[in-house]
Amino acid sequence: MPKTCYLCARVFDGVKTRQHGEHIIQNAIGGALISEEILCETCGGKLGRTVDTPFATALAPLTVLLDLPRDRGDYSRVGATIAAKTEEAAPLEGVQFTLYNDFSVVPRQPVALIDDVKLSVTVVGANQRQAEQYANSPRIQALVTKGYSLELSTNAATYAQNLLVPVKPNSKAVLRGVLKIAIGYASSNGVPRQDFEHLLEQDDL
Question: 191: number of CA atoms within 13 Å, CB side?
Answer without folding.
Answer: 13
